[in-house]
Amino acid sequence: MVKYFCCAGLLKNTWDQVCIAYWQRYPNPYSNHVLTEDIVFREVTPTNCLISRRLLTKTSRAPRWMERYLPKHMASSAYIIEDSIVDPQKRTMTTLTWNISHARLMSVEERCEYRINPENGSWTEIKREAWISSNVYGLSRAIQEFGLARFKTSVTKTMKGFEYVLAKMQGETPSRTLAETATERARETALAAKEKAKGLASQAQKKQYV
């Protein structure tokens, strides 16, 4: 049995911008789990389509109950193959990714299609599909549910990372940076208040002993 998931996304950027940002996604604050990316091959077809294959290395911490089924050196990392084809005439980019490590335990295949939004030519819509399967007898359903939950979480991070890179490309301040700045200022204010409180407390103690 295979778990199927499908969702749609929207990026308020042109298709050309999204395609450029796709190759510049890493690193970003939402992709700390991506360790390396290597191009296996890349070629242009006679119809001017760009075909690429990349190998990605990601951290992939398995839950403790699952670690017993994995070799120690594989319990915290995963290798992912990513195929893509960019068709400049149809204005589409299609990607297909799947894991080549832990595949017997859990296989996750993802297909994404990036197209110009029909209602707004300056926006890009994304159709995302995923197939999650497991061949572990007696645990396949639990593993698939775990894989689906993790995949949904990763989709949210992927979209945030995409928006971050697109904003940076256009010279805008990414929302993550604004949030970090606000957090840092809040910490500084809290630290100053804490030091002030310490000073007041120290003075109060001295008055008690005078």
UniProtKB/TrEMBL annotation:
PANTHER family: MSF1/PX19 RELATED
InterPro entries: PRELI/MSF1_dom (IPR006797), Slowmo/Ups (IPR037365)
Lineage: Eukaryota, Metazoa, Chordata, Craniata, Vertebrata
Domain of life: Eukaryota
Protein name according to UniProt: PRELI domain containing 1a
Stretches assigned to the PRELI/MSF1 domain: 2-174
GO CC, any one term: mitochondrial intermembrane space
